[in-house]
Design a protein that fits this description.
The structure holds two protein chains of two kinds.
Chain A: E1 4-7, E2 10-13, E3 19-25, E4 31-37, E5 44-51, E6 54-57, E7 64-66, E8 76-78, E9 87-94, E10 104-105, E11 109-113
Parallel strand pairs in A: 2-11
Antiparallel strand pairs in A: 1-3, 3-8, 4-5, 4-9, 5-6, 7-8, 9-10, 9-11
Chain B: E1 4-7, E2 10-14, E3 19-25, E4 32-37, E5 43-49, E6 52-56, E7 59-64, E8 69-74, E9 83-90, E10 98-100, E11 104-109
Parallel strand pairs in B: 2-11
Antiparallel strand pairs in B: 1-3, 3-8, 4-5, 4-9, 6-7, 7-8, 9-10, 9-11
The chains are: A mainly beta, B mainly beta.
Chain lengths: ~110, ~110
């Protein structure tokens, strides 16, 4: 079955530690995205990548880093510089950039920083 | 002011009722996505529409490009329809980036 997987579903970390969230897709999509969701707010774009070895900052990139070494993988690192990292993180992918391309979402990772 | 606004923010209905969720946007190009987020957090795409109306089962989505407004309707609502419904609009400059509304929390009681 084609789809997007994110792991783990729940993640707990101590303040000051970096943590990496996994996102893998087998849909052969070129574009991948990371979003953050906070209660009462719409999804906000952290980073996106349209092709391998290339990525762009979204609206809230500070304190985050990404890599895109393989087409199917787009891991997100939440660094200690992110002031308020506790949130729900969603990864998505789509066909090449275009306004009419549906985005497919993973199940999400809920990160709690203690 | 949000670039994508949804109303209402919360909606409670009885099973069988006709539901309408609205979305207005001030940016973006001539297309709009409707998404559904279930309590577990997973999001699925319901519709992408650029004109007129689309129907899938009991769900109907309409869009008025000139007025920059879209509605999502649910006929014969059922408790399993309880979810957050989100509209999203592609940016003008890059179609792959979306601006999301805050979502409408729908609860359908039996």
């Amino acid at each position: 079955d084609g789809g997007i997987t994110q792991s783990p579903k729940y993640l707990f970390r101590k303040e000051g530690q970096n943590v990496t969230l996994s996102c893998e897709q087998n849909l052969n999509h070129d574009a991948m995205y990371w979003y953050r969701q906070d209660p009462g707010q719409g999804l906000r774009l952290i980073y996106y990548s349209q092709i391998v070895n290339d990525f762009q900052k979204g609206d809230i990139a500070e304190g985050y880093s990404v890599s895109r070494e393989k087409k199917e993988s787009f891991p997100l690192t939440v660094t200690s510089a992110q002031k308020n990292p506790t949130a729900f993180y969603l990864c998505a992918s789509s066909l090449p950039a275009g306004p009419f391309n549906e985005q497919f979402f993973g199940p999400g990772t809920r990160l709690t920083v203690l | 002011k949000n670039e994508v606004e949804q109303s209402p923010q919360n909606l409670t209905a009885q099973e069988g009722e006709f539901i309408t969720i609205n979305c207005s946007y001030s940016v973006g190009i001539s297309a709009l996505h409707w998404l559904q987020q279930h309590p577990g957090g997973g999001i699925v795409s319901l519709f992408m529409l650029s004109s007129g109306k689309k129907k899938h089962g009991r769900l109907i989505a309409t869009i008025n490009i000139q007025e920059k407004h879209s509605s999502l309707h649910i006929t014969a609502s059922h408790p399993r329809d309880s979810a957050v419904y989100i509209c999203a609009v592609p940016w003008e400059t890059s179609g792959s980036r979306l601006t999301f509304g805050e979502g409408t929390q729908l609860t359908v009681n039996p």
